[in-house]
Design brief:
Layout (H helix, E strand, L loop, with lengths): L1 E6 L12 E6 L8 E2 L4 E3 H8 L7 E5 L3 E2 L8 E4 L4 E5 L8 H16 L18 H6 L6 H9 L5
Parallel strand pairs: 1-2, 1-5, 4-6, 5-8
Antiparallel strand pairs: 3-4, 7-8
The structure holds zinc ion (2 copies).
Length: about 160
């Protein structure tokens, strides 16, 4: 299952074991998405601006904090219809940064392939309310989610 990831060049390359990943070095200018009062980027505005609309489902890693109206923050956002997702780095920082980033990229990619949230706290599709949820889950899909992924078609 294919995935394209745009990763800022100063961020170490991450392993995303569930997908056949093409990583491209690209530093998105996040200023157009930044809400200066909150100091956070608006996730849905970023996805719309970056949308590829064709080709391979794509995740952009944005080196900032993100939010969505109604949420204090989000780790990422996927819009399957646009085949585009964003993942924000700010709340993933720490010793486990690369592992966390890989999990959140995989999670949003799962949404791009039509997967919803999963009840299994070890499954990468488990919804992360906090970084503890992200640390507890694995970078892998549970069997049920993987079956669904292999059946799924992205919105080509
Ligand atoms: Zn999700
Ligand atoms: Zn699952």
């Amino acid at each position: 299952v294919r995935l394209r990831v745009f990763l800022p060049p100063h961020i170490p390359r991450v392993e995303v074991p569930e997908f056949e990943v093409e990583v491209l070095a690209f530093d998105v200018d996040t200023r157009p998405f930044l809400d200066p009062l909150r100091g956070q980027c608006r996730a849905d505005v970023a996805v719309k601006a970056l949308a590829q609309r064709r080709g391979v489902p794509t995740v952009f890693v944005l080196d900032c904090d993100g939010y969505y109206p109604g949420f204090n923050f989000v780790f990422g956002l996927a819009v399957p219809e646009l085949m585009t997702a964003v993942v924000f780095t700010a709340r993933l920082r720490g010793a486990r940064f690369e592992e966390r980033l890989a999990k959140e990229i995989t999670h949003e990619a799962g949404h791009l392939y039509g997967l919803g949230h999963c009840d299994d706290p070890r499954c990468v599709m488990y919804f992360s309310n906090s970084i503890y949820d992200t640390d507890r889950k694995t970078p892998y899909f549970c069997q049920r989610c993987r079956r669904q992924l292999l059946r799924a078609r992205p919105y080509f």
